[in-house]
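Below is how a single chain appears once it has passed through the pipeline. First comes the sequence as given, then the structure the pipeline wrote out for it. We keep one example in the README because the format questions we get most often are answered faster by looking than by reading.
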Amino acid sequence: MLGIFFVLAASFVFFAVLAVGWVYDTDEVRELVGGHLSLHIDYVLDDIGDPPRIERAISITRKVPVDIRITGPEIDWASDPAFPKESELTFDRGAVLSDPANRLLGQLRDAEFAELDGHRFLRIRRGENAVIVSSPRIADEVQTRSLMPIIVGVGVSLVVLAYFAVRWLFRPISTIRRGAARIGQGRFDERIENVRKDQLGDLAEDINNMAADVRGMLDAKRQLLLGISHELRTPLSRMRLAVELLADQEGGATDADGMRADIVEMEKIIVTLLEAEHLNSRHAALHLEECDINVVIQQLLDDFFTRDKGRIRVSYSGMSRPVRIDEARVVLLLKNLLSNALRYSDESAGAIEVSVEVRSDSVVIRVQDRGPGIPEEQRDFIGEPFFRGDPSRTRHTGGSGLGLYLATLVARAHGGRLTLDREYVAGAAFVVTLPG
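Resulting structure:
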């Protein structure tokens, strides 16, 4: 903004000088000045007379702020002893009389101009005598005034005043921005305070009202989710109890096993959807803490993949430092990725590769399998809820298609991302990048 005001100041000065020069440089103005000067010179010369009369020259210098020197074969008189000698002055008709706009002044024959120490001298010859007029008086101190500093000073002053006025006018914007940023981070109890009673104050009040409305809607949404969870889990619990009783009856074990698997699958979907709903928001509450990612992965393998540890090969690289993550949710992310990799990989095709690289500001985890890969036409849908490349959705080949969706949300909640390596052709490879 400061740069814009300086550009405006420079433009103002430039065009102001240009306009003043254009006005005073017109032929009408210059011709008018030249005409008045010519007429004034005629009056002076007629008043002094020919031959020049010293008493008339003295009378003129008393009425007009000029000094006069009269020179000739028999006379050399000056109204001021400090008046320069004629020999000390260099006279020339110059550009003043040659300018077409000064044609009236140019009609004065033998009129010549000179300048010395800031004083201007006009010499008019009358026969053998010469009358030299000095303006201003020799005793007067010459003060040179330039229009440029005035224009520059006024222009810069006005622009500086305008700059600080605009800064004062828009000062609440920084307060509003900080408050809006805090509200955008999910701190809906924050309020923007100390804003003036004007349009910006109205804007701050509207943002405060919006924060309160959003807080109310999120609370209502949370209560709805909790209610749905409770209402669904209650009948599922009764169904499980009924299945257990059915299994005790003769011939009911086979049906009970199938129903039990369905109930487990339904509970898994409900839990996953609830977790996804918690994460599917920029305001997701993460429990961040410093962890050793190597220990986290090893514990994950020990807890959930004891039988398949021989099929998983883990490698570590990069820096040796703790990373700041939500350990429980990162474990959930990696568990889903490894489960998918094990499900779609043939044991004879080779081990599943997990590489972990800790960088200065992030951690990158790569999980690649030896399965059939993902067709090109399906890659853009990876991470969407309930999407699976296998349309059969059998229990053998996978669940409901929520695993990658949940993993994507976990990465996004951390401020990271989960991507598919499109260059890897020996199966499917997913890359998780988490800040921390």
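The radius of gyration is 48 Å.

See the next section for the split statistics.
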